[in-house]
């Protein structure tokens, strides 16, 4: 086994197991995960919670096994793109401040893995033999395009940026603000 094969296995195992563990955690607490999705601006939060668990467990398992690697990697890219847009981009780069460093790294590793191919110790190799149907560049482009396309579709269908807490006003506060403005206008008029 050469260095490239070892690299493929390490990438598949690390990215795949990371996604798998996240998916299991989301699946074990659908109620809590749904509450979190709602808090970051998603409609249908229970659907989002279930979907995230299924996608993360499925993509993670497929990557670990080296099965449908470009598609599994695209699911990681899509999931990380959604996470970046909804949570991490606004916080800058560094993970210590909830930045996008982590999600970018998982996405880049997934695209690299897709470009490299799943390797000889994989389900893909068992099913497809030695034939590669696409070049590494084509696989990387497919992974990136499908992932970002799926992320854009999910965001367009289900997400709206939540209002910052400081701009949200309770009905009582709105009434008080209006009353204060009216009082000020009458005093001036």
UniProtKB/TrEMBL annotation:
InterPro entries found in the cross-reference section: DoxX, DoxX-like_oxidoreductase
Keyword terms: Cell membrane, Membrane, Transmembrane, Transmembrane helix
Compartmental location: Cell membrane
Residue segments, region Disordered: 161-189
Superkingdom of the organism of origin: Bacteria
Low complexity composition-biased segments: 173-189
Membrane topology: Multi-pass membrane protein
Cellular component aspect of the GO annotation: plasma membrane
Family affiliation: Belongs to the DoxX family.
Protein name: Oxidoreductase
Organism: Haloactinomyces albus
